[in-house]
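COURSE: Structural Biology Practicum
ASSIGNMENT: Worksheet 4, Part C
STUDENT ID: 0417
INSTRUCTIONS: Below are two proteins. For each, the amino acid sequence is given first, followed by its structure token string. Answer the questions at the end about the second protein only.

PROTEIN I
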Amino acid sequence: MSKAWAKGSTPAWRRLRQYVLTRDAWVCQLCELSIDPMLRHPDPMSAQVHHTLEREVAGDDPRYLQAAHRECNLKAGQPGKRSPQPRRVSSW
């Protein structure tokens, strides 16, 4: 969980989340499969909203938000962030 969500969501975020999920017709924009609104966290197929641009750049602008399954959102990762290069390991 990011530091931004450490204290939980706000009423404003819940309204925006509902707007995005409805706008996208409850279809995951990452895998194009439908999202079941009855599923709840931590179900991998539960609804989340994916930021297509870093939150620090775009904030919560709905133009840069899209409906996603939890699993798809986690696989997509944080936009603009790359995984660190693996370290060389030597064992004797």
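PROTEIN II
(use this one for the questions)
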Amino acid sequence: MISKKFIRNSVIYTIAGSLPLASAIILLPFYIKYLSADVYGALALYMGFALLIQILISYSFDGSIYVYFHDFKNDKAKLNLFVSSIFIFVLIISLVIAIIFLIFGGWIFEQVFPEIKILFFPYGLISVATGIFQGFFKINSSLLQTQEKASSFLWLNLVSFTLIAIFTIGGLYFFPNDLLGPIVGRFVAVAFTGLIVLIGIYRQFGFRFNFGLLKSTLSFNHPSFGYQIIQWFNGYYDKVLMTLYMPIAQIGIYDFASKCLLAIEFALAGLYNSFFPKVLGMVALQTEKKTTIEINRYYNGLTAITILLVGFCIFLFPVVIEWFVTQFDKVGYLASIQWIPFLAVTYLLRSIRFYAVMPYAAIKYQKPLPLFYLLIFGVKLGGMLLLIPNYGIMGVIISTWISYFVEVAVLYFGIRRKFSFKVNIFKTFVAPLLMASLVTVAEPLFGIQNSLLTHGAYIIFGITVLAWGYRNEVKVFQLSKLIK
């Protein structure tokens, strides 16, 4: 049974966890108003670079702190030393990364972006600093969730969200159609919250360093770090590759459409993070590692919510984008509307991917992930190299779809000897794939001429599929038994 505390914390983590990134959605109308599509495309590249820096300096401690916190929680002195050592180690990495890019950043950007004018100084350097502070914030967020400090998690994320929105909008207003406003504005916001995190950590856990204590986590961190790096390439290198074949305005259009659909990602990530520690705990208690009915309920619920969100977002966002474009007379962004349905399909595939990747964290089996994701990225990269020259943005999207199918297959076959899956085939696989197939087939045929009718049909279809898939649960559903 699901407790009231779990439901409360789930709501808090879902809402609060989405706030810092949700600022990207809140800012979209202001980007339309103050930035041209090509300037926005350049901004997307710098923001992707800042995320890479975040991954480099956090060195996967945002993931390992979930797992290893519980090993020390009964020994307060050792726990304090462990957490303090993590943040000091990340500070050292940050300093090294900053020095490397300060010396070689200009040359690196010249090699990566030979066709367009994306310079390291000053915006790349500012992005390095932004990524460093984002890394500290991310690790602390994982720590708060592991400690089940839902209220602190909420307030800190609320402060971050507010500051990012205020400083970025202010920067856009005072420096329209210029990268200075949004890049510096975001830096000021994340620097403030990052400093709050560091002060809070060292007040609570002290300022002591013991590398020997961290060694126990590095067996987890090394492959997980490689996995995160490859995941960054898998998720962001498409924009870098697009600079070789397409004008930067097209990158802006593609990224803008993707950002609109972050509403789905934020909701799913918040919900996933709310139950994932519970899943880890359940698997840890098992002698035979496998999925259970309760674990499946969490992931099937995640898939069901994804289907509903995809339908509603495909219906809503084209209408909203068209209204803002008309209001601000920025017709360059209209081209993003046609990509919304196809990009939404990727979230249906990702819902399956959540399930497939879970056992690797649950049983701390991280070693093969870098190799697996190197293979997956290779498939996606090969697809993009073949498809982008002829199909442009659609080539990127198709390559992403292919890589998700490959990812799920590789993850399953890589873990099946160590972890047993018992799934409801319809809820886990058939339902999202039916929705994805409908959108993929119907959108080119009817989506442009009869967009509202077609997109409304997606919502009805999604509800119908879920009603059929959960028909037995609906019959016996009693709220008084669900909540204790």
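ANSWER KEY EXCERPT:
Q1: Residues 1-221 form one domain.
Q2: Residues 478-484 have pLDDT under 50 and may be disordered.
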